[in-house]
Amino acid sequence: MTRVPCMEAVVAVLESEGVDTVFGIPGAAILPLYAALQHSSIRHVTVRHEEGGTHAADGWARVTGNVGVCVGTSGPAGTNMITGLYTAMADSVPIICVTGQAAASKLHQEAFQAVDIVEIARPVTKWAVQLKEPAQAPWVFREAFRIARSGRPGPVLIDLPIDVQRGTCLYDRTVDAPLPVEMPRPLPAAVRRAVDMLGEARRPIILAGGGVIVAEAADELRALAEHLQVPVQVTLMGKGAFPEDHPLFAGMAGIQTQTRWGNAAFLESDLVLAVGARFGDRHTGDLDVYRKGRRFIHVDIEPTQFGRVFEPDLGVFGHAQPVLAEMVTEARSRTTARAPGKWVRRVGELRRTMARRDDFDDVPIKPPRVFRELNAFYPQDTTFVTAIGLYQIWSGQFQTTYLPRRYLVCGQAGPLGWEVPAAMGVKCAHPERQVVAVVGDYSFQFLMEEVAVAAQYRIPFVIVMINNEYLGLIRQAEIPYGMNYAVDLHYGEGGIDHVKAMESFGCPARRVELPGDLREALAWATAEAARERLPVLVEVMVEREANAAMGPSLDAIKEFEPLPELVTVDWSD
């Protein structure tokens, strides 16, 4: 073994773990790590805000399936990372945030920018740890990667006191490698029982959550669905787990990001095989309505998920890929591939008759028309990034997705400002991909300084802004209370001109007010981003009063005709 600066050993670990890009901001308390990074193969992207760095690492991780890394100094750098850690924790995204820290001997003395970031981060991480000895440095980082990847993935924070960073350790990269990550397999009896229940059901559906994408199990999901001819729904986090142009695609159920025909199909089902899904409240709504008349099989890699929201009829513990693969093997051993039956045809009928309109020619532009144009213009392998608010709801309702890791959304935490830095992380991971960030006007302003980062490093992507000029989702939520209070953002005199703001960063931008101009604007932005190697904005001025379809669990609001009565006939052959 050779004695080396311990931060050099840390950087060697990062390289061997597959990290090629780190997002961060240097500061005095983290400079030994930066000194080691400058002699490595790792690219460093200097962000403008530590929260933006965490979201960029988050986007990098979601699109690669690897562990993203963000670095900051002590004090406020770490506290600025908490939102990003919470977002990654909520959506099962593996990232590591590394913070500098005051010298260990000063931590009890209220030293400059010394804060107990480990305790602050503990509730929103899988592991938060402070490095105590230089000799532990490579092994703490190895364990951090293992923890971030294992079980239900998630974030880790490592705090590095400056005096510990300056230490040395014995390390030889030729005898070191990533720690193994367990892929738990299901009990054979549980697999047999799950297949039994699918066979007994008359109107089963498969519900694919984000865990299917995390597990790289889309192929196994499709094989099971096609062999048994079981319709497949996706959650918001599961978009891309199953192609939405497939005859077995059954839409999305929920109270916000949903399709009307998906809600109808769910209400007619009698069994749900949920794989890697949390049963989030925006998906289930009223649990009495959600559960009535159907049995549930819950497949998850985290056993404490079983019964957390409601008790399933069968819980199957295991990694989604081997669980679905073994279910396919079991199903094939029992029966030949089935042909589409009455239930599949019924779901197709609901899809044909209950789709929402998106072909509006109204001025101001109606939001569904924006997503119609996005669907039509961009190819199926485009990566879309979106965040929270009315535009997320419209995106979930109208955007079509075909491939895993091509639709990225901060689902559970929903931090405003996530989209631009996340899109930057995606493009750093896959420079060859077409990346489109769908943003709201208010969310864009939260971290719009990260546009300057993308411009500096020539990271090109398209930003499509859905601008209704005020806090539309909050205004909509206030309607039942007879309020419309404090939601106007004053886009008149003294307001923000987003086109000029982009141009101030040196980036092209265009405003669209007519639906007929949308397609050409998207073509212009895509060409400009590729030619200039810059982020490009298309700001779409949409109908100010436009609402998203929300309401009671698994129902449409009154502006749409009511869902059909629950069908209880046997749709199987």
From TrEMBL:
Lineage: Bacteria, Bacillati, Actinomycetota, Actinomycetes, Streptosporangiales
Organism superkingdom: Bacteria
Annotated Thiamine pyrophosphate enzyme N-terminal TPP-binding domain residues: 8-119
Keywords, in A-Z order: Lyase, Thiamine pyrophosphate
Name this protein carries in UniProt: Glyoxylate carboligase
Enzymatic class: lyase
Residue ranges of every copy of the Thiamine pyrophosphate enzyme central domain listed in the record: 191-326
SUPFAM superfamilies named in the record: DHS-like NAD/FAD-binding domain, Thiamin diphosphate-binding fold (THDP-binding)
